[in-house]
Amino acid sequence: MINSTRPAREAIAHEHVVMAARAKLARQERRRRVTNRAVQLTALAIVVGGWQLAGMYWLDPFLYSTPAAVWHRLVEWFTTGTPIGSVWEQILTSLRESAVGLGVGGIAGILCGILVGASRVLADFFGPLIRAANIVPSIVLVTLFFIWFELGTSSKVATVIAIIFFATFFATFSGIREVDTRMLQEAELFGVGAVARVTTVIVPLAATRIVAGLRSAAELAWIGAIMAEFIGGRKGLGLLVRYGEATFDATGILAAMIVITAIAVGGKVILTNLEQWLRRSR
Q: Where, by residue number, does the polypeptide cross the bilayer (predicted)?
């Protein structure tokens, strides 16, 4: 008589083996992350400690500053303010300029990328023109925007919009053009209209490239806002860096760099977690 419970026992045993293997891999991944973080913190401590000792005994602190001096400057900024006003005002100014530029430039770039990428005629006509415009250095656009919009917020936002537009346009355009033509032909055979093909076939298949372009654009938005403020701003963290340069204040420049970097890293973590949440919720 054939034992009918044997396949069930084998299936349960196989499931236990798989679960044990997954648990082992998870433990290895946790150990790897902990080890990497420990190595990173150790390297950071060595660099900061070496910098402090070098500033105390070998390097000129006026030119190279020290971690202690930078820390005291940060405390001063967040308690009493900076030479150009409240540090929170500078942070909010830079965040507002980058956020508005990212929103407007991102929407415009994605829509234009979809429109041009989905049409062979538009791609052949506008593609080379937009590529040529993208070659123009950003600093040239900044100076033009200063002439057109003066030194207010508008010129900074326009700079960010221009940078983000090209970044999101090319990410979307490339994603659209890489869609398998066989999928489009099958949709056309089933009677799917042109607009429906774009919304139900092309855009979903290119979504990965579009999301990746948006993530990169968010970083560029922050960089663009700081760059525009440095060249000709009245407020913002970029102006704080320029003030340090004008007064030969290495400590102030380094402190501003830390604030800029901390916000950029925090924003990247938030966007990465948001992207992962969106993928899980789909």
A: 38-59, 98-117, 129-151, 157-177, 189-212, 250-271
Closest CA to 226 of 129, 123, 158, 156: 156
CA dist list (Å): 209 to 101, 108, 202, 229: 20, 16, 12, 30
- What are residue 85's phi and psi, to 5 degrees? 125, -170
How many Å apart are CA 119 and CA 127, to the nearest integer? 11
First CA to last CA distance, the chain: 49
User: Does 43 score more than 90 pLDDT?
Assistant: no
Residue 100: both structure tokens together = 């508005």
d(CA 113, CA 131): 12
Three-state secondary-structure class, residue 82:
strand
Helix axes 250-281, 67-80, angle to 10 degrees: 80
- List all residues 6 or more positions away from 216 whose beta carbon is below 8 Å from its beta carbon: 167, 171
Residue carrying structure tokens 């044997």:
6
pLDDT digits 0-9 by tens, 159-215:
899 889 988 888 888 887 776 666 666 666 666 666 666 666 667 777 777 877 888
Q: Which of 259, 163, 258 is nearest to 216 (CA)?
A: 163
In whole angstroms, give the CA distance from residue 265 to residue 63: 27
CA distance 98 to 107: 14
